[in-house]
């Protein structure tokens, strides 16, 4: 039977159960055997009735001593009960609404029962135990039993027996997708063995071998796919740009670039003169100076007669970049434009026309830059700032705007390098691992409610010294502020301004405001016209207010570590000693432990690793849109070692056979094609 056979034809499934299987994402035989257990129960140990441990799940072998008796308690509830015995003990087994048991349990026959031991000493009882005849081969008892994800209409037993039937039919047809050389080199179990033992492990060692092989296989195929894509990317040709004379640019910068900035700029210019389209990720902690690096790339493109686009995730940031880049680059002859959603119709028309005519060299904007009807005359460089908010699809859309343009992606989310390879697949990575000199550590404190008055006093003192303060309240996502949430932020801001700090100027900014209103509020804060800015996470990325010296975060337990680190990066950007105060909220011990990591270190990479370890990759990126592909069995949080191994194995294999054209790599090539097909539009 072929792997794409509909599950409904598997013995014991049928049309109705096939519908339930579909809810688990299982519609074919292949998907059935690839629907791996989420856990296992070790039911190997067989006890006597006397050895049963109250409260534990146990297997016991016993003989049915009395005819099961069915009692109807009321409509919809009946109980079947009987006594079972072994050589030295007796036990009651009770079943609710399982009247078939009356005929299934035959007096005088021996069965293995598996269930939780209840009742009293001397009178043990099992309720709804799993059972099977002792003379049958081990099925749901006396072995390690798989536990599958559940859905209505399917029991564990039904799923397991369908998988059993499925493996019996197709076991020998399961493709060996790992080339033999790889399998041998990394000592990986064979396909058939692995599928058999991942579902029905013979023992713990076999289970471990099976898991290791299947996890490796999944990560290996993903890694091969990404390397393969990258290879294809490198075959394309892109605008060849000679290295511009950067001296005027460096002379115009208001500071001396750090070594890390210079190195990164060098890597970018090398990419741009290679004749192939650049695909580079610049990763640098908050405040590491990514904007200057982007400006250098834009300067180089413009001096080569090309246009550059700079996308920011929010209008606030786009405006801020527009201001600082205009100040830096216009004196150098670069014509800078701004295109955002809140531009008036006339201004928008004019900007669009200038872009299309090539009268603007660098255009800064938000998503508006990739909306339909936006045309460039000669777009050759695209810069995306704080990329994780864009999503890979949008990056792909940008790619379509020019003719194989150079793409530079900048992220402040420090992602462990191995993960970056997955999330950003086809990108080369530069790391700005150095902060500009003179940056002092932001002292971070974790406090409880009891400290609130003292923190308020601290705020008064800092404002008295001329500093400014951010107070951030959690709100789901910029665009997802629920009315309740918004209400509480508004009320909190009101309370602060009317009762707590009547003598201070308190502003409020949140995601539901119009872009123009947001900008006005941010600008007046940046201009020092507001002392305290209460905000939801709209300020998380990028905003630069060097006079702000304190970041207070309410209910800090609701944020991820990486997100809090970003927030903290909003202060300590000037010459003033800066602080971050985290109110711990009601997250409990685990949350407190997590937050303490922030007090210990200012290193974003360390925090990222910690966050990943503690919360897993989904939360790590602050939203479901992690950019990570769905995995069947591997976990990016726990299988890091195997991921590294798989990545280097993939690299080696593709170096030897870049097009995956050798016959022995045929099955792997099909698997890679399948991943590409499944993720069409996600991986660009
Ligand atoms: P981020 O990497 O977070 O985007 P920015 O580019 O916004 O960082 O830079 C943060 C601040 O540091 C800005 O005020 C910028 O002018 C300043 N800055 C950047 N590079 C340097 C440098 N080499 N020396 C001194 N200050 C710098
Ligand atoms: Mg930035």
What this model shows, in words?
The chain is of the alpha/beta class and 684 residues long. Among the domains are: 45-142, Nucleic acid-binding proteins (OB fold (Dihydrolipoamide Acetyltransferase, E2P), Beta Barrel); 247-274 and 289-411, Rossmann fold (3-Layer(aba) Sandwich); 443-601, Rossmann fold. Strands 13-14-12-15-16-11-17 form a 7-stranded parallel beta sheet, sandwiched between helices. Strands 18-23-22-19-21-20 form a 6-stranded parallel beta sheet, with helices on both faces. A hairpin with a 2-residue loop joins strand 4 (69-74) and strand 5 (77-85). The chain is globular, with a radius of gyration of 31 Å. The protein binds adenosine-5'-diphosphate and magnesium ion.
Q: Helix and strand layout, with pairings?
A:
Elements: H1 14-23, H2 29-33, E1 39-42, E2 46-47, E3 57-64, E4 69-74, E5 77-85, E6 90-96, H3 101-104, E7 110-120, E8 123-127, E9 130-133, E10 144-147, H4 156-170, H5 180-185, H6 191-199, H7 204-235, H8 247-252, H9 259-273, E11 279-284, H10 290-303, E12 307-311, H11 315-329, E13 336-339, H12 345-357, E14 362-365, E15 379-385, H13 392-399, E16 406-411, H14 417-423, E17 428-432, E18 443-447, H15 452-464, E19 468-472, H16 483-500, E20 506-509, H17 515-526, E21 532-535, E22 548-553, H18 561-568, E23 579-583, H19 588-600, H20 604-620, H21 640-656, H22 666-678
Parallel strand pairs: 2-3, 6-8, 11-16, 11-17, 12-14, 12-15, 13-14, 15-16, 18-23, 19-21, 19-22, 20-21, 22-23
Antiparallel strand pairs: 1-10, 3-5, 3-7, 4-5, 5-6, 7-8, 7-9
């Amino acid at each position: 039977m072929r792997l794409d056979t509909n599950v409904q034809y598997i013995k014991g499934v049928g049309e109705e159960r096939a519908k339930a299987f579909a809810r688990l994402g299982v519609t074919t035989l292949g998907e059935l055997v690839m629907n791996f257990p989420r856990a296992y129960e070790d039911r190997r140990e067989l006890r006597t009735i006397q050895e049963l441990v109250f409260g534990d799940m146990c297997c016991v072998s016993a003989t049915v001593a009395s005819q099961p008796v069915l009692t109807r308690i009321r409509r919809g509830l009946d109980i079947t009960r009987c006594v079972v015995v072994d050589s030295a003990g007796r036990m009651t087994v009770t079943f609710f609404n399982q009247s078939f048991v009356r005929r299934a349990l035959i007096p005088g026959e021996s069965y293995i029962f598996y269930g939780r031991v209840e009742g009293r000493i001397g009178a043990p009882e099992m309720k709804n135990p799993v059972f099977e005849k002792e003379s049958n081969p081990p099925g749901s008892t006396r072995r390690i039993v798989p536990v599958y994800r559940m859905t209505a209409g399917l029991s564990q037993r039904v799923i397991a027996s369908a998988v059993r039937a499925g493996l019996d039919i197709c076991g020998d047809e399961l493709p060996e997708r790992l080339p033999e050389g790889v399998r041998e080199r990394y000592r990986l179990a064979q396909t058939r063995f692995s599928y058999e033992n991942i579902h029905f492990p013979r023992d713990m060692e076999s289970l471990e071998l099976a898991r290791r092989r299947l996890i490796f296989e999944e990560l290996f195929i993903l890694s091969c796919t990404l390397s393969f894509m990258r290879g294809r990317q490198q075959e394309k040709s892109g605008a060849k740009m000679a290295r511009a004379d950067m001296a005027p640019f460096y002379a115009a910068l208001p500071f001396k670039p750090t070594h890390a900035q210079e190195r990164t700029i060098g890597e970018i210019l090398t990419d741009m003169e290679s004749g192939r389209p650049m695909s580079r990720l610049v990763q640098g902690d908050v405040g590491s100076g990514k904007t200057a690096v982007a400006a250098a790339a834009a300067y180089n493109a413009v001096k080569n007669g090309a246009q550059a686009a700079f996308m920011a995730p929010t209008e606030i940031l786009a405006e801020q970049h527009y201001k600082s880049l205009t100040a830096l680059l216009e004196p150098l002859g670069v014509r800078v434009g701004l295109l955002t959603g809140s531009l008036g119709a006339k201004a928008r028309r004019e900007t669009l026309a200038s872009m299309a005519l090539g009268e603007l060299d660098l255009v800064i904007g938000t998503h508006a830059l990739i909306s339909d009807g936006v045309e460039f005359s000669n777009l050759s460089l695209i810069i995306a700032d704080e990329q994780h908010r864009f999503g890979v699809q949008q990056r792909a859309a940008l790619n379509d705007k020019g003719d194989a343009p150079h793409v530079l992606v900048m992220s402040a989310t420090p992602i462990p390098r191995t993960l970056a390879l997955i999330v950003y697949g086809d990108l080369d990575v530069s790391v700005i691992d150095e902060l500009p000199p003179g940056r002092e550590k932001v002292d971070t404190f974790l406090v409880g409610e009891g400290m609130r008055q003292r923190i308020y006093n601290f705020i008064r003192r800092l404002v008295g010294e001329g500093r400014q303060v951010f107070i951030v309240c959690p709100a789901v996502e910029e665009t997802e502020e629920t009315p309740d949430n918004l209400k509480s932020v508004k009320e909190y801001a009101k309370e602060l301004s009317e009762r707590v700090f009547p003598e201070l100027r308190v502003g409020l900014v949140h995601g539901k405001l119009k872009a123009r209103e947001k900008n006005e509020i941010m600008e007046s804060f940046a201009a020092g016209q507001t002392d305290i800015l209460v905000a939801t996470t709209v300020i998380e990325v990028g905003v630069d207010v060097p006079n702000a010296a304190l970041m207070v975060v309410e209910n800090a337990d609701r944020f991820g570590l990486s997100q809090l680190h970003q927030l903290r990066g909003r202060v300590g950007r000037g010459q003033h000693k800066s602080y971050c105060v985290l109110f711990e909220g009601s997250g409990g011990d685990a949350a407190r432990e997590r937050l303490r990591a922030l007090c210990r270190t200012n290193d974003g990479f360390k925090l990222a690793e910690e966050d990943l370890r503690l919360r897993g990759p989904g939360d790590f990126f602050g939203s479901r849109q992690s950019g990570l592909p769905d995995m069947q069995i591997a976990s990016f949080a726990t299988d890091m070692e195997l991921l590294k191994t798989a990545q280097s194995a993939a690299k080696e294999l593709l170096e030897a056979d870049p097009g995956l054209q050798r016959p022995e790599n045929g099955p792997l090539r099909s698997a890679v094609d399948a991943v590409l097909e499944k993720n069409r539009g996600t991986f660009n």
